[in-house]
Amino acid sequence: xxxxxxxxxxxxxxxxxxxxxxxxxxxxxxxxxxxxxxxxxxxxxxxxxxxxxxxxxxxxxxxxxxxxxxxxxxxxxxxxxxxxxxxxx
Length: 89
Known about the structure:
89 residues; alpha+beta; Nuclear Transport Factor 2, Chain: A; 1 helix; disordered C terminus
């Protein structure tokens, strides 16, 4: 995604931006498929927009975002849960 760091750092940036802009933000993983160094995650993110998100001013609307593109990861440990707004810490 333009403006985000590549790889894991960019994914973290996206989640942090989403968490900062949306109240009651949440993520539900529907499916995860891994083959080699590629991982496909089908996920739903929801929240009520209270702050600016990627240049879009707050509207107070509850939005659903679905799916994520395939990700290439260097090794399985990159998939382990990390500390952050969507990991219970």
